[in-house]
Hints:
The protein is mainly β. The protein is built from one helix and four strands; from the N terminus they run E-E-H-E-E. It has a four-stranded antiparallel beta sheet, with helices on one face. The model has no long low-confidence stretch (mean pLDDT 87).
Amino acid sequence: MSYYSLEEQETVILYEPVTKQFVIYSTVPKHIKRLKNVAIASLLQDEKDSEGVTIAYRIKVKKLPNSYTFNR
C-alpha cells in the first residue's frame, strides 16, 4: 500500500537554467523505484515512513535520457 493516496501522489521535474540540471521529486512508488536506479543522479532527499519504506524521493541530474518516460 502507498503512503500517499492516489490524489496526493505526484512526480515533478524541474529544470534549473543556472545549474543546467533537472530536479526530480516523486511520491509515486513506481517512479521512486525507477529513480533509485538512476546512476548519474545526486540524491537530495530520501524520505521514509516509520517502517523504513521510501515515500518521497528527490534527485538532481545533469541530463535526462531522450527515452526517459514514466508511463511505461
